[in-house]
Amino acid sequence: MAEYDRMLAGVSLERDELTEILAALVQLASVDGEFGDTEHQMILTLMEHYAPRPLGAEELRALLDRPVDTGRIAHPEAALLLCLMLAYADGTYSGPEGTFLSQLSAALGVAPERLEELHLAVRIKVFSAIAEAAIAASPTRSADDQPVIEEVRRALRLDEETAAREIAAVQRELSSRTISD
After folding, report:
1. Both 65 and 124 in a single domain?
2. What's the CA dihedral at 22, 27, 28, 31 to 10 degrees?
3. Can you list the residues of the chain whose pLDDT is less than 50?
4. SS3 111
5. Please, are residues 21 and 13 in contact by the beta-carbon 8 Å criterion?
6. What's the confidence (pLDDT) of residue 1?
7. Residue range(s) defining the domain that contains residue 156
8. What span, in angstroms and rounded, lies between the C-alpha atoms of 58 and 21?
9. Which of 66, 92, 164, 166 is exposed most, by the fewest CB atoms within 10 A?
10. Co-location of 93 and 123 in the same domain
11. CB within 8 A of 43, min separation 6: which ones?
């Protein structure tokens, strides 16, 4: 299980906490001026996963116009992980998103070094998902002939060793699926 998955495993969000995390997500999605369909879909998926009753469109819009009450967020690292995943939902991590997340992290009492560790965990998660899709689509199931994987590695600022380790894990996972099918 990847570090990202371990950090979210077993996290149960109460309604008040979820509302504040959703406020952070909605504000993050809007901070760069583009609240895209992918970001919207990711927020809806999160609500389906955690919320007993999803918030309506009016309730979500209201979250834009008020500050995030960080005192109600009992799982600050989980909140930051979800925000970081949303920041990559549209394919880019913008400067305004980085500023917003640094400010949110500070308000949550999470050290900048820890935010960077969480950011790395999310970059690895994104890289692994893209590598898995590229390798699974390849007739040879090899990363060697996948230039997109190298391009993504560079875009996510992952070192070659980390990327190689994640590709090997993806290949093992795909092999085990093939064997068990």
Report:
1. no
2. 170
3. 1, 181
4. coil
5. yes
6. 43
7. 119-180
8. 17
9. 66
10. no
11. 22, 25, 26, 29, 60, 86
Q: What pLDDT does 2 receive?
A: 62
Block residue for tokens 């900048």: 112
Residues 104 and 129 reside in one and the same domain: no
Confidence (pTM): 0.80
Q: What pLDDT is recorded for position 117?
A: 93
18 and 64 in a single domain? The answer is: yes
- pLDDT tens digit sequence for 67-91: 999 999 999 999 999 999 999 887 7
Residue 3 tokens read as 């570090």
Cβ atoms 50, 74 nearer than 8 A: no
3-state SS, 113-159, equals HHHHHHHHHHHHHHHHHHHHHHHHHCCCCCCCCCHHHHHHHHHCCCC
